[in-house]
Design goal:
InterPro entries: NTF2-like_dom_sf, SnoaL-like. It comes from Desulfosporosinus acididurans. Pfam families: SnoaL_2. This is Putative PhzA/B-like protein. The structure is a single chain. By secondary structure, this protein is of the alpha+beta class. The chain has one domain: Nuclear Transport Factor 2, Chain: A (Roll), CATH 3.10.450.50. Helices cover about 30% and strands about 35% of the residues. The chain contains 5 helices and 6 strands; from the N terminus they run αααββαββββα. The protein has a 6-stranded mixed β-sheet. Helix 2 runs antiparallel to helix 3. The N terminus and C terminus are likely disordered.
Length: about 160
Amino acid sequence: MSNLQNPKSTASQPPSERHDFMGAAEVFEQVLEMYRTGNLQSLVDLLAEDAVMEFPFAPSGRPRRVEGKDNIIKYNQAILGSVTITSITDVEIHRMIDPDCVVVEMIGHGTVLSTGNSYERRYVDVCYTKSGRIQLLRDYWNPQDSQISKDNGVT
């Protein structure tokens, strides 16, 4: 996925050492893979202990900010317990001058588990990393743009 090649081979290094060489684009590619597979353990390895997720357009009653690795994992467990992600398409990774920042556009597709209805939502995410770990992930989506938010309560 990434069009940048790291001159250092990290394949034989432990995951904690590999993270030091990853910029935000490489980290986010692993986040995408986590959502595709539903493997939350890989997210645990990508988050800084003091990581923050922000949802600037979250509707009333939904969190606008989730702080700390453990809380972010719980939040994502709840999402993946409500929706099965079957694919992520139209992925555009926009690298910034700062390699520890990336902007990503994408569409998530899946199924709402409680109803069997289709899930489709367009996202724009801004991800900041430090030493190959997510420090801040801002998740922009329009809760009015989907029947899911209205009919099924999934965000």
